[in-house]
Amino acid sequence: MREKYLKKLRKLLKQDKFSKLKSFFKKYDVNVNEILDEKQNTALHIACKYGHDAIALLLIKRGAGCLASNADGNLPLHLACKFALRNRHAYTDLVLPLMKNCRRSLDVRNSQGVTPRELLSEIKDQLQGQFHEDDSTSCESEIEEEDWREKLAHEVQGEDMFAAYENDYQYEGRVPNTYDNWADSMNKQYHRKHNQPHFASTRKRSRFSGEDKNDKKPKISDEKKEEFAKKLQEEYKKKKEKEKNEQSKEARKIYDLKCKAMFGPLRHKDHLHYKDIPWPFATKNCSAESVTSFLFADLAPASSGYKDYLRQQQIRWHPDRFMQKCRERLVEADLEKIVSTVKDVSQILNALSDKS
């Protein structure tokens, strides 16, 4: 029975059956870090070996370890880089997500003494060679502009995708992703796009015959530069707003789960210190601004969702109800501070209710 289960899982991974794999995860209690074959490959190893980027991201989200090594000492990133050497698109679709999730894997050597960082250097050299490979082929500036817009959108989409993994890796010397840093990077790519020969793409492109191969590309006008800068800023604002909303939803989801565990019928009997209570604010001290931004950042004040959720919070943090459910577990040393904060939260929520 178990061998049949493992065989089915390996088949779904190898054949890139993303939807069926999600259903498989719902049906079975799958350990995503389990060894699946005689080569000691995990599910993430198999997904990376075959270049199945969507499945790899799904596995990472479900807790797949990026530092697991197979019988050859290869990490998933080793296999992803090897696939990217044969398939250029895998660099952005597969390799980058793995790097963002676990930077520590970059310098881990396999049995042959090769690190993912060294394989990445090969990929970089290969991409640069392809970039200059076809000097004679050129496309209309409109097509290049369309490609650039597509790349810009892909960059924004990619950063949104990886936002969920930002807290999973840390490394020294990391540059904060400010607007200036991001815009500067994208601006440099834009200028390279317009001032260097266009490299051959795996995508099918329109070609125009009779074009002089020695024609120089027109210089970018100041007006176009300004338009591009505005576009960058708009895209960045949208990206950060979406990222903020997603983070708010996730934080609130965790908060609600902790509250249910603390207030629910199956609540544990352990003593509660001030720090053990899932307060509805992320700052050190309670304030109207901190409570509002934590609980309602992505909810419009006039919406029914806002009013319903506000009502739930009023009930949850009513001082009498709180004491009824938690009084016996509160540590005496923190009792005064806890009661005071509960009252503050309740007053803030009541004030918000009066305004709505």
UniProtKB/TrEMBL annotation:
Residues 191-207 have a biased composition (Basic residues). Keywords: ANK repeat, Nucleus, Phosphoprotein, Repeat. Residues 191-226 are annotated as: Disordered. It is found in: Nucleus. One of its GO terms (biological process) is negative regulation of canonical NF-kappaB signal transduction. ANK repeats lie at residues 39-71. Its main location: nucleus. It comes from the Eukaryota. GO terms for cellular component: nucleus. SUPFAM superfamilies: Ankyrin repeat. Residues 208-226 have a biased composition (Basic and acidic residues). Transmembrane segments: none annotated. This is NF-kappa-B inhibitor-like protein 1. It comes from Capitella teleta (Polychaete worm). The lineage of its organism: Eukaryota, Metazoa, Spiralia, Lophotrochozoa, Annelida.
